[in-house]
Specification:
- This protein is mostly helical.
- The protein is 88% helix and 0% strand.
- Helix 2 packs across helix 5 and helix 3 packs antiparallel against helix 4.
- The radius of gyration is 22 Å and the shape is flat.
């Protein structure tokens, strides 16, 4: 009985140590918080500007995310016929155009909240953050494979 308990405990510790060594999973809330902090810092947003800007910014991101999901869905499975391929291409083009239209609409709204130079800095900071995040993800993925 005692031997069985000891083996069970050792097994549990082994499983816990394996799971604790796995790379951290993506946490969307943490990612969003880091993104907003980076943008605030890089663009020099005041607390008042950030408080007004980020709810609108999140709204844009949510709408874009839905369109990105649509693009991703179309990309996963290649249609079996020419008409299906044509429809998939046109659907992706439409989603890309909708993303750009959304960005344009929201940039106009953002310009009512922020100066043009600050909005430019926000857009630039967002690009930098995404590039850095992708590089970290790639590096982590390579390290996990070795």
């Amino acid at each position: 009985m005692m031997k069985r308990l000891l083996i069970t405990l050792l097994f549990c510790f082994a499983v816990l140590s394996i799971f604790s060594q796995r790379p951290n999973r993506f946490d969307p809330k943490r990612y969003q918080a880091e993104l907003e902090q980076f943008i605030t810092s890089e663009a020099g947003l005041t607390p008042n500007e950030a408080a007004v800007f980020f709810p609108k910014y999140r709204e844009l991101q949510d709408k874009q995310h839905l369109l990105f999901k649509k693009i991703k869905r179309n990309r996963r499975i290649k249609p079996t016929d020419e008409q299906g391929c044509r429809n998939a291409i046109l659907s992706r083009d439409e989603a890309d155009l909708q993303i750009k239209t959304l960005q344009q609409q929201y940039h106009k709204e953002f310009l009512k909240i922020l100066s043009a130079s600050k909005l430019y800095d926000v857009i630039r900071a967002e690009d930098i953050f995404h590039r850095q995040s992708f590089k970290k993800w790639q590096k982590g993925k390579r390290n996990a494979e070795h």
